[in-house]
Write a structure and sequence with these properties.
CATH class of the largest domain: Alpha Beta
Largest sheet: 8 strands, mixed
Strand content: 15-25%
CATH topology of the largest domain: D-Maltodextrin-Binding Protein, domain 2
Number of domains: 3
Distance between the termini: 62 Å
Order of helices and strands: HHHHEEHEHHEEEHEHEHEHEEHE
CATH architecture of the largest domain: 3-Layer(aba) Sandwich
Number of strands: 12
Number of helices: 12
Length: about 300
């Protein structure tokens, strides 16, 4: 018998440990593996007993890897990655490649080219899953994601696809009524109805940050409505209810079709943007490599008129 089987007779406990270490909580790991949170916690506790090691510090509520846990996780992650690559190569790639994206990315970048992407990655099938907040990815089954932020995701690879370029926008009717265009001075926008999307848990630009970048101060009115979903705030703008602050590249088609028009200078936040995020093992999958290449070759163009 191999020494590993003597030390860990039930190897699935290593898989449970790896999931908890990667996802950060027993709940998220249990959801991914299809077992309950208590069962997940019990499996890890028994693994610790078998190995006579403390793998997680549970004193702060959220489990944190100990030094021994970090070392074991690094070894297991590397071994699992090698196995996944080998199996993927033997089977000529994943049967299904699932990409998680936010609504704006799905509607304005992925959906218009869905048939082309699916043909490109065949014989793998493409599934698209939608999320609003990055925290949802902890429990959402997916292989790769396009997420907004600085690209730093624990135990994952990432590559920037787009920098954040935020631009004030409105319907053509609203812009005409208020005399707004892309040359409008930022101070003029203080007089307009500003529609705001909930930025809780996000790093993307807000009206406060946009005005600050242009040397102005904007205090959110007490009566301000904060919309939770992208679709809701875009719908309000299209109905000429006010101005939105949005991504110039992601909304490129809406600007091109005249559904929205730019109503002031853009703002670039170089350190933030949309990143492609994937586990290292996926890097050698043929379908993923083709998807990654397509995303890099078909990035929406970004405005060069900007204030950093």
């Amino acid at each position: 018998m191999r020494p590993l089987l003597r030390q860990v007779p039930q190897l699935q406990r290593l898989a449970v440990f790896e999931a908890v270490a990667r996802l950060g909580t027993f709940t998220a790991a249990g959801t991914e593996l299809g077992i309950s949170q208590p069962a997940c916690s019990k499996q890890v506790a028994r693994l610790e007993d078998q190995l006579h090691l403390v793998l997680f510090d549970r004193s702060q509520g959220r489990p944190r890897l100990t030094a021994d846990g970090e070392r074991l996780h690094a070894s297991i992650s590397g071994s699992f990655a090698d196995l996944e690559v080998t199996l993927s190569e033997l089977r000529s790639g994943l049967d299904v490649l699932t990409i998680a994206v936010q609504p704006a990315v799905a509607a304005n970048w992925i959906a218009p080219h869905l048939d082309d992407i699916r043909a490109l990655i065949a014989p793998s099938r493409l599934h698209v899953r939608i999320f609003e907040h990055a925290a949802e990815l902890e429990t959402m089954a997916h292989d790769v994601s396009i997420r907004f932020g600085d690209g730093n995701v624990s135990h994952m690879r990432s590559e920037k696809l787009l920098s954040e370029v935020a631009v004030p926008a409105a319907s053509p009717e609203y812009a005409l009524r208020h005399g707004l265009d892309e040359e409008t001075e930022p101070s003029r926008l203080l007089e307009c109805e500003l529609l705001e999307f909930d930025s809780t848990g996000h790093d993307w630009a807000t009206w406060s940050r946009w005005f600050e970048a242009h040397g102005l101060v904007w205090d959110r009115p007490e009566h301000q409505i904060v919309y939770r979903g992208h679709a809701s705030v875009i719908a309000q703008a299209i109905m000429s209810r006010g101005l939105i602050l949005t991504w110039s590249a992601i909304r490129q088609d809406m600007f091109r079709m005249g559904t929205l028009v730019e109503c002031g200078p853009t703002m670039v936040v170089p350190d933030l943007g949309h990143h492609l995020v994937w586990p290292a093992a996926l890097g050698r999958d043929r379908g993923f490599r083709r998807l990654r290449g397509w995303l890099l070759d078909n990035r929406p163009s970004q405005s060069t008129q900007a204030t950093a």
